[in-house]
Inverse folding.
C-alpha cells in the first residue's frame, strides 16, 4: 500500500507540480549575486524571453564590467565580455556584422553612464538596432559601494561619506531621459523588479524590445531601477522600501518613449 | 589577377588592399595623416560591400573591432599616434581574448598632440605591447606604397593564423606619398575555421561561445599568459621577415625600417661611393624582431649604425641582439623631422671615427 502512495506522489510531482522550469537559456551555474539583488531577477526574465521567443540560437549578448561581469556564466547564449564602459561599442560591432541576429548589452550605471557615456549616447544616437539593459542601482556594487553617476543627492556611499552633495559631486545623471530625447531611439522605458507585479511589467518590456529589434525598429533601452543591499548596507527588504521611497521619485517607473514617440505623462507606480 | 599598375597614395593603396583582401568591416575615427583610409573606404568600401562606420572615438572604434572580430569577421581599424594611444586599452583586451584583426598606425610626431608630420616615435607603444599586461602584437613595417598594400594581405593572414592582432606601423610620409602599386596578392575569405570560438548564436550542437579576457583565478590567468607567451615564441621562430641589402663583404651595417630605411639605403650608397663597405638590414617585422641575423652578423662587423625618426627606440632591440659584440651607434630626428641621406652620412662619419 505504501508503495502505491509513493507511486502516486511521483506521478503528481512529475506531471502537475511543476510551476516554473529553468529555461534552457539559463545555465546550471549558481549565481554569485548577493541575496535580494536585482541582477539575478533581470538575468532570469531576460533569458526566459529569449527562450519563449525561440531565439537562443539567434542571440548574442555583451556583458559589462561590474557585478554582472559574469553574466555569461549564467546566460546560455553566445556572449562577449566588454571592457568597462565599452559594451555599446562592442554590441555595435557585432550587430553591424550580423544584422539579422538579436544583440543586447547588459550594463550597470557606472559602466553605462560614467566611463561608457560616450559609447552609450552615440550608439543610441545612431539608432543601432540593439537592446540595452541598464541596471541602475545608484552605486558601484562591484568595487565596494562608491558613488555612481546615478547616486541620489544626500545618499551616503564610500566616496560620499557625508552624502552626495550637488555643488561638488554633481546631480544624479538621468541618462535615460536624455536618451529618450534622441530622434533615433525607438523604445525607452524605466522598470523595476522588486515585486512580482514589477517583474511582470519588466518582462513585458523586454518582450516588446526584442520584438522591435526583430522588426528592425532600432535602439531600445530598458533601465531597471534596482537595489544593491550590500552596497547600500541594508537588508533586501529594507533596500526595496528605501528604493521605492527615495529612488522612484528621482527615477519614475514607466515608459519614456515608445514607437519613437515621447510619452509626456509618466505613469508612476509604487 | 591582372597586373594593373596604379599611382596611389600609401593610405589609399592600403585601403584598396583591404577591400581586395576581403576585409568585411572597418571602424575608424578621423586623424591626420591617415584620414584617407576612412575616406576611401567610406566610398569604395561601402560600394563594394564592406561595413564601414565612423565611430565617435578611437576608444569606440577599437571596441567595435573587438565585437566584430568576435562575431567571426575579418575587420580592421586605422589611426595615427594619439588615436593609437587611446586604443591601447582595447588592444590589450583583443590580445588577451585572441581576436584576429588589423590595426594600422600611420605614425606622427609626438608626444602629446605633437605634429602631423611623419615620425617613428611609436615603436615602443607598437612593439612592446602598448597597453597593460604581457602581450605582443605582430608588427609589420612597410617602406614603400607597394608594401603598404602587400602587408594588408600578410597582416590579415598572420592575424588569423595566430588569432592575434596585427599592426601595420608606417609613418605619415608613407601614408601620404604617391608611388606606383599593383595588387597581385589575394586572400581567401575563410582561411581558418573559426566556429569553435566566434559568437554567432549558440547552436544546439555546441556549447555557448564566450569571448572574454577575464580569468579571476590567478592559476587560470597564468595559464592564459603561458599560452600567449608560447604563441609569441612560435611567432618569433617562424615569422621574422627582413631585407638585407649590400651585405657582401660589408664592414658596417645600418639598421633601419620604414622611411628611415629608404633614407639609409641612399646613405649607404653615398658611403660606398666614399670607400666604405656598408650594408643595410631592414626589418619588415618589428615584432618578431630579426634578433638572430643581427646576432650572427655582429661579430663580423666593425660597427652597427641605427637610424630612426625617434630618440632611439628600435636601438634598444638592436643592442639586445648584439649583446655588446659590436659597437652600436645611432642617429635620429624627432618631432616630425626627416633626416636627409647626406645628414645621416655625416653622422655616420663621426661615429665611424670614434674609437
Ligand atoms: C578602466 C577601468 N576602470 C575601473 C575599473 C574598476 N571597476 C570595475 S566595476 C566598476 C564599477 C561598476 O559599477 P556599475 O557599472 O554601476 O555596476 P554594478 O557593480 O553596480 O552592477 C569599476 C569602477 C575597471 N574594471 N576598468
Ligand atoms: S554588490 Fe550590490 S549589485 Fe553587486 S551583487 Fe551585491 S547586491 Fe547586487
Ligand atoms: Mg551600479
Amino acid at each position: 500500500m505504501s508503495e502505491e502512495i509513493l507511486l502516486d506522489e511521483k506521478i503528481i510531482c512529475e506531471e502537475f507540480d511543476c510551476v516554473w522550469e529553468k529555461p534552457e537559456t539559463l545555465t546550471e551555474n549558481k549565481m554569485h549575486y548577493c541575496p535580494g539583488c536585482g541582477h539575478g531577477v533581470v538575468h532570469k526574465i531576460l533569458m526566459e524571453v529569449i527562450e519563449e521567443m525561440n531565439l537562443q540560437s539567434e542571440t548574442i549578448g555583451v556583458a559589462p564590467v561590474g557585478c554582472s561581469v559574469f553574466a555569461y556564466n549564467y546566460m546560455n547564449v553566445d556572449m562577449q565580455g566588454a571592457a568597462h564602459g565599452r559594451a555599446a561599442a562592442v554590441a555595435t560591432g557585432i550587430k553591424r556584422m550580423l544584422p539579422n541576429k538579436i544583440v543586447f548589452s547588459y550594463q550597470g550605471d557606472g559602466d553605462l553612464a560614467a566611463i561608457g557615456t560616450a559609447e552609450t549616447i552615440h550608439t543610441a544616437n545612431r539608432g543601432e538596432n540593439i537592446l540595452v539593459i541598464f541596471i541602475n542601482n545608484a552605486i558601484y556594487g562591484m568595487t565596494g559601494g562608491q558613488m555612481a553617476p546615478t547616486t541620489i543627492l544626500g545618499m551616503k556611499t564610500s566616496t560620499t561619506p557625508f552624502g552626495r552633495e550637488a555643488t561638488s559631486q554633481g546631480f544624479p545623471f538621468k541618462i535615460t531621459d536624455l536618451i529618450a530625447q534622441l530622434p533615433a531611439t525607438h523604445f525607452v522605458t524605466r522598470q523595476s523588479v522588486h515585486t512580482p507585479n514589477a517583474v511582470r511589467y519588466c518582462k513585458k518590456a523586454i518582450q516588446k524590445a526584442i520584438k522591435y529589434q526583430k522588426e528592425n525598429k532600432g535602439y531600445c533601452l530598458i533601465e531597471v531601477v534596482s537595489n544593491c543591499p550590500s552596497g547600500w548596507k541594508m537588508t533586501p527588504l529594507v533596500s526595496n522600501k528605501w528604493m521605492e521611497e527615495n529612488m522612484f521619485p528621482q527615477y519614475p517607473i514607466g515608459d519614456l518613449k515608445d514607437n519613437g514617440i515621447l510619452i509626456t505623462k509618466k505613469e508612476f507606480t509604487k | 589577377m591582372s597586373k594593373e599598375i596604379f599611382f596611389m597614395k600609401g593610405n589609399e593603396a592600403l585601403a584598396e588592399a583591404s577591400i581586395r583582401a576581403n576585409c568585411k568591416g572597418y571602424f575608424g575615427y578621423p586623424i591626420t595623416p591617415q584620414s584617407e583610409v576612412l575616406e576611401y573606404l567610406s566610398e569604395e568600401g561601402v560600394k563594394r560591400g564592406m561595413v564601414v562606420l565612423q565611430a565617435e572615438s578611437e576608444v569606440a572604434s577599437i571596441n567595435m573591432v573587438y565585437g566584430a572580430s568576435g562575431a567571426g569577421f575579418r575587420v580592421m581599424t586605422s589611426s595615427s599616434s594619439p588615436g593609437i594611444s587611446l586604443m591601447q586599452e582595447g588592444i590589450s583586451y583583443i590580445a588577451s581574448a585572441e581576436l584576429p584583426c588589423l590595426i594600422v598606425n600611420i605614425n606622427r610626431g609626438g608626444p602629446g598632440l605633437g605634429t602631423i608630420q611623419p615620425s617613428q616615435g611609436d615603436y615602443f607603444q607598437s612593439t612592446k605591447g602598448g597597453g597593460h599586461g604581457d602581450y605582443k602584437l605582430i608588427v609589420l613595417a612597410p617602406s614603400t606604397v607597394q608594401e603598404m598594400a602587400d602587408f594588408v594581405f600578410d597582416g590579415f593572414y598572420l592575424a588569423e593564423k595566430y588569432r592575434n592582432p596585427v599592426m601595420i606601423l608606417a609613418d605619415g610620409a608613407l601614408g601620404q606619398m604617391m608611388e606606383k602599386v599593383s595588387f597581385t596578392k589575394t586572400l581567401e575569405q575563410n582561411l581558418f575555421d573559426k566556429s569553435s570560438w566566434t559568437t554567432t548564436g549558440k547552436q544546439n550542437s555546441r556549447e555557448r561561445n564566450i569571448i572574454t579576457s577575464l580569468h579571476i583565478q590567478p592559476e587560470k590567468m597564468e595559464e592564459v599568459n603561458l599560452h600567449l607567451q608560447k604563441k609569441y615564441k612560435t611567432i618569433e621562430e617562424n615569422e621574422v621577415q627582413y631585407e638585407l641589402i649590400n651585405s657582401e663583404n660589408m664592414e658596417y651595417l645600418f639598421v633601419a625600417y620604414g622611411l628611415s630605411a629608404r633614407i639609409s639605403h641612399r646613405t649607404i650608397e653615398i658611403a660606398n661611393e666614399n670607400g666604405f663597405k656598408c650594408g643595410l638590414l631592414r626589418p619588415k617585422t618589428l615584432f618578431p624582431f630579426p634578433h638572430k641575423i643581427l646576432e650572427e652578423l655582429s661579430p663580423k662587423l666593425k660597427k652597427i649604425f641605427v637610424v630612426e625618426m625617434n630618440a632611439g627606440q628600435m636601438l634598444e632591440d638592436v643592442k639586445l641582439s648584439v649583446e655588446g659584440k659590436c659597437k652600436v651607434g645611432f642617429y635620429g630626428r624627432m618631432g616630425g623631422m626627416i633626416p636627409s641621406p647626406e645628414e645621416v652620412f655625416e653622422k655616420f662619419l663621426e661615429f665611424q671615427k670614434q674609437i
